Amino acid sequence: MARVPIYRMIADDLVAQIKSGELPVSSQLPSEAELAQRYGVSRMTVRQAMDQLENAKLVVRHRGSGSYVRDVPGRLRGMNGLRSFIAEISADGSAVTNRIVAQESQSTVPPEVAAELSTARSTRFTRLARVRLVDGTPAAYQEAWIPFAVAPGLARDELVEGSLYRTLAQRYGVELGWANQVISSVLVDDDLATLLDEKVGNPLLAIRRTTFSTRNVPIEFVRSWSRAGYPLAQRLDAV
Question: What angle is formed at CA 227 by the lines to CA 2 and CA 192, rounded to 5 degrees?
Fold first, then answer.
């Protein structure tokens, strides 16, 4: 079982206090020295925990006066159209970066992938696995499979501005058409705990999506797991 760093446990405890209202908006957090004494750790460990809260935009730190709980509305991922993760998140000014876990050519893929991409008539695929970081904090883990015929050099390509969809469009002339998507919830397992720096057993938002081009050719099958704090927002029209 993956071991959760002590600073992460402290950060999670402080987040819980913020969400419960025990630490209300605009309230001042205890000093680093007070938190170090409370949790029985060094001030360096407390500082790492506070870095987590600051990166998540839950607190603001003022030199000389301390740290305060921010009044920040929850981050929403717009899902009213077929867009990349970067486009969904960066609309509020957040910085999205990648940690590449795998970018490789495969001839054998999981049965689910083969079934979803069967009409692509491809026997080779590129697997792209990434941890998506928002303002430096792991937010999601994604595994995507792209038929070799769609993007022959993708296993060797550097992604355009970190985006798979931009790479497909600009280097391979692929136009996004539509997608089938299934959203569910899962619990963090050992592997995801390590990738996302998350506690085993915590809930995640899971998405499975098959994306098609404007010519109705399947161009991608992706599985993603997102941490809590990145809810989906959709517009629903009457029919």
Answer: 30
What predicted TM-score, i.e. pTM, was given to this entire model?
A: 0.67
Same domain, 96 and 177: yes
Mean pLDDT of 74-91: 66
Amino acid (1-letter code) at residue 8? R
Q: Report the candidate in 173, 184, 183 with the shortest Cα–Cα distance to residue 214.
A: 173
List, in order, residues 6 or more apart from 203 with CB less than 8 Å away. Answer: 185, 186, 187, 188, 228
146 and 53 co-located in one domain: no
Please give the tally of structural domains in the chain.
Answer: 2
Do 119 and 113 form a contact (C-beta atoms < 8 A)? Answer: no
44 CB burial (10 A radius; 0-12, 13-18, 19+): exposed
pLDDT at site 1:
47
Q: Examine the pLDDT at 76 and tell me if it is beyond 80.
A: no
Residue-averaged pLDDT of the chain: 86
Dist CA 110 CA 114 (whole Å): 6
Contact residues for 210 (Cβ-Cβ < 8 A; gap 6+): 116, 117, 179, 180, 181, 218, 220, 221
Residue 93 is which amino acid? G
136 and 120 within one domain: yes
> What burial class does residue 69 get, using C-beta atoms within 10 Å of its C-beta: 0-12 exposed, 13-18 middle, 19+ buried?
buried
Please say if the pLDDT value at position 219 is more than 50: yes
For 37, the domain range is 6-69
* Strand locations in the chain (E): 59-62, 66-69, 77-78, 96-106, 125-134, 137-147, 176-187, 203-213, 218-227, 232-233
